[in-house]
C-alpha cells in the first residue's frame, strides 16, 4: 500500500477479496457447532432473520461509510468516522476498527497455523495408525507447548510464526497481493468444499460400524434443517444467531471500511455488499452445513455429535473419519479439508492487516512494507501468549473480548453515527450512489430503527455475561497464586455434588450425575438423558490431593493443597495485553491528530 492512488484491479477481485474477508474459519467450524448447540433447524430461523435485519444493513453501512471516508483520503476507521461527524470522540471510537483486527489476527493466525500443520500431517500419514481417542489427544498435545508431534521443538510456535510470516509477506505486496490470493483461494475453497459436501450428502449409513451401528449422515442433515420450535423462545438462541452473523460477515471490525475506502466515488456499494454477503451465506449455510456435522454423524452418530460439538471438533475427528476412506483418499481428503480451512482463514486474516496499514500510510506516510511488517510484529507480540497459554484460557479471553464484545460495541456505535448523527437521509443517498440495483426502501427504516435497536439489545443483554467474565464467575479458583485448589462446578448452576472415584498422588477422578442431549427420531425432538459423568484433575509435584475415595465433594471444597498458579493469572495477563493494545492504538491516533493539527488539516 504505497500510494494514495492505489485501488482494486477489478470488480471481481474486490468482491472475491470482500467475500474472502467474510468467508473464514467460522463458516466451516463455528456455524455448524452453533447450529447444533442452539436447536438445530431452530437456529437457522433467527440466523436468517438476523442476516436480513442486521447483517445486510451493516454491510450497507460499512461499505458506504468506507467509500465516503475514502473520498477524503482516509483508509482506516478513526478518520473515516471523523469525516462523518463533528467532535473528537469519533476518531477514538474508530480505534476499535484497528484494535479489533490486530487482536483477532493475533489468535486467528494461530488457528490458521493448525490447518497448515494438519495438512503436513495428512501428507505425512501421521494419523494413519491412530484411533479416535489418539487423534483427539493429538490435538491436545499439539496445543500443549513443550510437546512435539513431529520431532520439531515447540512445533505449535514454529507453525504459528510461519503462518504469520506468510500473512505479512502477502500484505507487504498491497492490494494486488490480497486480490491475487482471493482470486486463487476463494475458487479453490469452493472446489474443495463442494468435493467434501458431496461426500457428506452421499455418505448415508455407509459409515456405520459395530461401535456406532446407528451412525447416519442424514440424521445430521435432518437435525440441522428440522426446526425445534421450542428453541425460538430462548433469548440465548437469538443472541447466538446475532453473534454468528457478526462473526461470519466480519462486520463491526473495520476491515470492510478499509477495503471500501479504495473504491472510486461512483463505484457501486449496494450490489457489491449484497454479492459479498450472499456469497458468504452460500458458503456457510450450504457448504458449512454439509461437511463437519453430516460426516461426523455418518461415522460416529448424531448423539456423539450433540455431546462433543465444539470449535476444535473438526481437528479432533475429521482426520480419523478420513482414515475410513482408505490410505490414499485419506491423504487427499486431509489436504482438501485442511487446505479449505487454510484458504478460508488466510483470506480473512489478510483483511485484518489492512486497517493498521492504511492508517499508518495516511497519517505517517509509511510504506506498505513498513506497515505490513509492523502489523506482523505487533500481532506476534500479542499472539504468542495465546499460543503459550492456550490451555490456560488466554485464547478464549481474546476471542471473547476482541472477537465478540468489541464487534458489538463498534457496530452499535457506527450504526448510531450513520443513522442519527451523519443522518439517514445522507446515508441513504450514499448507499444508493452509483448503485446497479435499487435497494428496497424498507432497508432505510431497518437501518434507522430496527438495526440499532437490535444491536442495543444484544449489547445490553450481554452485559451480565461481561460482568461475570470480569468477576471470573466461571471458576472457584479465583486467586492468581494459592495454597489450595478447589473443586469446580459440576453443572452451570453449581448445585450438583460429586463423589471421589479414584485418587493417586497426582490425579483425582470425581463422578457425578449429568445430562446429555440425545435425538429421539420417533418424536423428532431432543431429549435429556441422565448418565454418570466424570471430572478429572491432574496435579504436579508439590501439589497433593487431600480427598479420599467415596468422599462427597461439593463445588468450592478443597481437593488439593500446595503451590498453585491458577488460570485466572494467565487470563488477567491476556486482558491487560488487550487493554494495553487499545491504549497504544489510541495514543497513535492522538499523535496523528496532533500531526494533522500542526499541518492545518483540522481545526479544534
Q: Give me the Rg, rounded.
A: 25 Å
Helix content: 55-70%
- Going by CATH, the architecture of the largest domain would be Up-down Bundle
Largest sheet: 4 strands, antiparallel
Helix and strand content put the structural class at alpha+beta
Q: For this structure, what is the CATH class of the largest domain?
A: Mainly Alpha
Low-confidence runs of at least 5 consecutive residues: none
Q: Order of strands across the biggest sheet?
A: 4-3-2-6
H and E order: HHHHHHHHHHHHHHHHHHHHHEEEEEEEH
What's the N-to-C terminus distance? Answer: 30 Å
For this structure, the CATH topology of the largest domain is Amino acid/polyamine transporter I
**Percentage of residues in DSSP E strands:** 5-15%
Number of strands: 7
Structure description:
The protein is α+β, with helices and mostly antiparallel strands and 604 residues long. The protein folds into two domains: 11-472 and 572-599, Amino acid/polyamine transporter I; 481-565, no CATH class. The protein has 22 helices and seven strands. It has helices at 11-22, 25-37, 41-70, 77-82, 89-93, 96-124, 132-142, 155-171, 175-202, 217-225, 235-249, 255-260, 270-290, 292-300, 302-308, 313-323, 327-364, 368-388, 394-421, 424-432, 442-470, 567-598, and strands spanning 481-486, 498-504, 507-520, 525-538, 543-545, 552-553, 558-565. The chain has a four-stranded antiparallel β-sheet with strand order 4-3-2-6. A three-stranded antiparallel β-sheet has the order 1-7-5. Helix 8 crosses helix 17 and helix 17 packs across helix 18 (368-388). The relative contact order is 0.15. Keywords: Membrane, Transmembrane, Transmembrane helix, Transport. It is found in: Membrane. One of its GO terms (cellular component) is membrane.
